[in-house]
Amino acid sequence: MPALNDLALTVEEREPGQFYWTLLEALDNSGRSDVHDLHDTLDYRVYRSAARPQTSHSNALALGVAELQKISASRPSA
Description:
Radius of gyration: 15 Å
Strand content: 25-35%
Order of helices and strands: EEEH
Helix content: 10-25%
Distance between the termini: 16 Å
């Protein structure tokens, strides 16, 4: 499971009025020789995504935040 600071939340409207949250995981490019300036770009891959659309951007965003909170709560405390 990635660290919480390696996750990004985005919302996309795939069809008019159908909004989906997506959690993206940052990729480590430190070993790639074809990446020239790692400070200017970040690469991500889809970590989790909504199974069902929401009718508004704000609803999808709220559900994405709730998913992040579930991930955070399931982590053991240090």
